[in-house]
Design a protein that fits this description.
This protein is α+β, with helices and mostly antiparallel strands. The chain has helices spanning 10-13, 72-83, 102-107, 109-122, 136-140, 146-154, 158-170, 178-194; strands spanning 3-7, 21-25, 30-38, 48-52, 59-61, 63-66, 90-94, 99-100, 126-130. It has 8 helices and 9 strands. Strand 7 and strand 8 (99-100) form a beta hairpin.
């Protein structure tokens, strides 16, 4: 079984102990990705992080890399350990059968179909990815928008803001979302004002 892992954020530069084969390829499926999750735990607690979010307009070409595993359950366990999350937060697609992880299918059904169509075209047997839920509105009580996310980021305590900015900076260049555009505009504007 040829199993491929999808990524769009920190997984690319920080695979940690995740077993992979070769280099990340830049022609993954085009999905709705945005910084619309606020992390609750670990070193990025309080930071905006990337998730599949079909309510956002930003479509991003994701990256992919092969897993050395031929057993789907083991590949899922590898990604779960790397993400430090529950098995419910790992998406998978068994391509020929059209079978998906139930939580991934309920959280982002359009993305699941795009992932399967892409995998069929590429000849992969299974695909796995981080399928965490959006958590911006749950955390703040207001809907996600790039402006709301920027206000949130700007109001973070300095150490958390520094970690959040590092995460955003380390995200692959092709993961360009409306929020990231707005942040770059703010940065350019403040730089011009200082000069």
């Amino acid at each position: 079984m040829r199993i491929v892992i999808l990524g769009w954020g920190s997984l690319i530069n920080e695979p940690r102990d995740l077993p992979i084969v070769g280099d990340w390829q830049k022609d993954g499926p085009v999905l709705w990705i945005e910084f619309s999750r606020i992390s609750r735990k670990g070193e990025r607690a309080g930071c905006l992080t990337l998730v599949i979010d079909e309510r956002c307009e930003s479509e991003v070409t994701t990256l992919h890399v092969l897993s050395p595993r031929t057993d789907l359950a083991q590949a899922v366990a590898d990604l779960q350990e790397r993400e430090g999350t529950s098995q419910d937060d790992i998406g998978f697609c068994v391509v020929a059968a059209g079978r998906f992880a139930p939580n991934a299918l309920s959280r982002h059904p359009k993305s699941c179909e795009r992932i399967r169509a892409w995998a069929l075209e590429k000849g992969f047997d299974a695909v796995i990815w981080a399928a965490q839920s959006r958590r911006f509105k749950d955390a703040l009580g207001i809907p996600f928008s790039p402006a709301a996310a920027l206000n949130y980021l700007n109001g973070l305590p300095a150490p958390t803001k520094e970690k959040a900015l590092q995460y955003i900076h380390d995200t692959p260049a092709q993961t360009m979302t409306p929020f990231r555009h707005l942040l770059l505009e703010q940065h350019a504007k403040s730089k011009n004002e200082r000069n």
